[in-house]
Amino acid sequence: MKKQKKPSTAIIPCPVILVSVAHEKQPNIITLSWAANVCSDPPSIAIGVRPSRYSYDLIKEAGDFVVNIPSRDLLDATVFCGTHSGREHNKFEECGLTPVNATKVSAPMIEECPLNIEAEVKKIISVGVHDLFIAEVVAVHMDQEAIDSKERLDLNIAAPFTYIPLTGEYWGIGKKIG
Amino acid sequence: MKKQKKPSTAIIPCPVILVSVAHEKQPNIITLSWAANVCSDPPSIAIGVRPSRYSYDLIKEAGDFVVNIPSRDLLDATVFCGTHSGREHNKFEECGLTPVNATKVSAPMIEECPLNIEAEVKKIISVGVHDLFIAEVVAVHMDQEAIDSKERLDLNIAAPFTYIPLTGEYWGIGKKIG
User: Fold this and answer.
1) Nearest by CB: A117 against B10, B33, B46
2) Would A18 be classed as within a structural domain?
3) What's the domain range around B145?
4) How far apart are CA A117 and CA A104, in angstroms?
């Protein structure tokens, strides 16, 4: 038996990403979950951002950003960066995160995140209260200590986690099933 | 220390979805991972589909689809529906899945999936080898037995899983961390 619920953003599990962006005053970080890989060639991603958010104009002006995948020990910083505005906070400083230069884009990478994805904005699509930034991936970086002997990301070390919008909860990744 | 890798679709974890779509001959199912919630109001989702895939034209013609979230006991069907074409296969029949009528769209829901999301296509955006279908969620259904006492989806029963494109692996969801 199925129970009907009201329409909502119900796709699960969702990634949890820290988007870093450059700005002449200071770089900023915004936590997002409306995000996905959307195209294999050119490798492209999309992120949904509300135009009212401080980072919206920063990303639009810079034309690029970095998607940083946090490990679960960064959960507190992840929540902070999603609930405070860069208009009033220096999130790198207040969260103890370190900006390091990216190789292809103006946005800094977050050193403490085991996976960093440099991206250049290609299109901005209006959907509703969120706009969708479609961007091409131009470089990927992984922490040396999170790579296994086959040069692949070791998920047990990288320890990414997921957001479940239906319950408002964060859940860890479990075990390999296939 | 960071190690630079070539550009790729590196956002993790990714959802794993079974997209069902109507067709006069027989309904079809395609497994996708390039998918996300992208906008809160109207609740909207996006899925990336290659124009060469059989389901591409079906979705375009129907103008709607259902996103079905499989539980981990549907892993084999999930892999089958992502590696075989509806041009030669009746995937509902061959995978033992049951099409049931949706409430708002022409596409059928997959009864065996604990979460079903009805969606109407609003925009099709060309990105590269994948096109992005942006669609509005018009109804959500959950299995009665997967809902807890607060009427919320119980993740331990729904047992969604994730795809990790960097390693080509499927991983289960672990435990609540926040």
Assistant:
1) B10
2) yes
3) 14-166
4) 10
Residue B5 lies in a domain: no
Strands (E), A24-102: 28-32, 35-40, 43-49, 64-69, 99-100
The verdict on residue A103 lying in a domain is yes
Q: What CATH number corresponds to the domain at position A152?
A: 2.30.110.10
Residue B128 lies in a domain: yes
- When divided into structural domains, chain A yields a total of 1
Opening angle at CA A119, ends A117 and A120, nearest 5: 170
Could you read off the pLDDT tens digit of each residue along chain A, which spans 178 residues?
Answer: 999 999 999 999 999 999 999 999 999 999 999 999 999 999 999 999 999 999 999 999 999 999 999 999 999 999 999 999 999 999 999 999 999 999 999 999 999 999 999 999 999 999 999 999 999 999 999 999 999 988 899 999 999 999 999 999 999 999 999 9
Q: Which of A68, A94, A72 is nearest to A83 (CA)?
A: A94
Looking at chain B, which residue has its C-alpha nearest residue A121?
B127
**With a CB-CB cutoff of 8 Å, which residues 113-152 of chain A face chain B?**
115-118, 122-123, 125, 127-130, 132, 134, 136-145, 147, 151-152
Q: In angstroms, rounded to a whole number, what is the distance separating the alpha carbons of residues A75 and A135? A: 25
pTM value? 0.97
Cα distances from A47 to residues A31, A41, A64, B147, B176, in angstroms, run 11, 17, 12, 29, 24
Q: Provide ipTM, 2 decimals.
A: 0.97
